[in-house]
């Protein structure tokens, strides 16, 4: 668990990190360099969840590289499926990371929603739904290694 006490906002106790895969952790179906190491280091403090439609058909390899098994999202209604997954974990205990249009509801549902810039671009919906925007997935993951960065950005 990672705790944040954000002045003017409140206390966060994050237990789960839910992440989109393609466009967020991977580009063109291949894991971004450095992601496996960051995710592995966070597993001692957070339960990591991957959500994917497996657009490129390479999720099995990504699962092996991360030592996790992604939840497959069915075609149609992807945004609501992702948000429902977050709510099922208990939204107040969840941080979520994504960048695509179908990630916006998930980012809104989570206690802490982080939108990452991506080679694929960033959907306007996700940009506006996020609490924070990070320039890269590695920067987003580093926020959990250095929680004061979150506090500094979100305090009011």
N-end to C-end Cα span: 23 Å
Major sheet: arrangement of strands: 7-6-3-8-9-10
Remind me, CATH topology? Rossmann fold
Instruction: Estimate the helix proportion, in percent.
Output: 25-40%
CATH level 4 superfamily: HAD superfamily/HAD-like
Structural class based on helices, strands and sheet pairing:
alpha/beta
Contiguous helical run count: 7
Mean pLDDT: 96
What does the overall shape look like?
globular
**Highest-level CATH class:** Alpha Beta
Low-pLDDT segments, ≥5 res = none
Total E-strand runs:
10
Provide the gyration radius in Å.
Answer: 14 Å
Main sheet properties: 6 strands, parallel
Tally of structural domains: 1
Order of helices and strands: EEEEEHEHEHEHEHEHH
How much beta, percentage-wise?
Answer: 25-35%
Would you identify the CATH architecture? 3-Layer(aba) Sandwich
Please write out the topology.
Blueprint: E1 2-6, E2 10-14, E3 16-20, E4 26-27, E5 30-31, H1 35-42, E6 47-52, H2 59-66, E7 71-72, H3 78-89, E8 94-98, H4 104-109, E9 112-116, H5 124-129, E10 132-134, H6 137-145, H7 148-154
Parallel strand pairs: 3-6, 3-8, 6-7, 8-9, 9-10
Antiparallel strand pairs: 1-2, 4-5
Helix pairs in contact: 1-6
């Amino acid at each position: 668990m990672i705790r944040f006490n954000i002045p003017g906002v409140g206390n966060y106790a994050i237990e789960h990190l839910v992440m989109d895969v393609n466009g967020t952790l991977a580009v063109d179906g291949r894991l971004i360099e450095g992601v496996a190491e960051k995710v592995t280091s966070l597993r001692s403090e957070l339960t990591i969840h991957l959500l994917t439609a497996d657009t490129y058909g390479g999720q099995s390899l990504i699962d092996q590289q991360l030592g996790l098994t992604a939840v497959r999202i069915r075609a149609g209604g992807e945004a609501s499926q992702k948000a429902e997954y977050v709510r099922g974990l208990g939204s107040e205990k969840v941080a979520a990371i994504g960048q695509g249009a179908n990630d916006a509801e998930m980012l809104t549902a989570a206690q802490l929603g982080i939108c990452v810039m991506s080679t694929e671009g960033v959907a306007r919906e996700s940009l506006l739904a996020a609490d924070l925007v990070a320039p890269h997935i590695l920067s987003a993951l580093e926020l959990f290694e250095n929680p004061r960065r979150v506090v500094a950005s979100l305090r009011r």
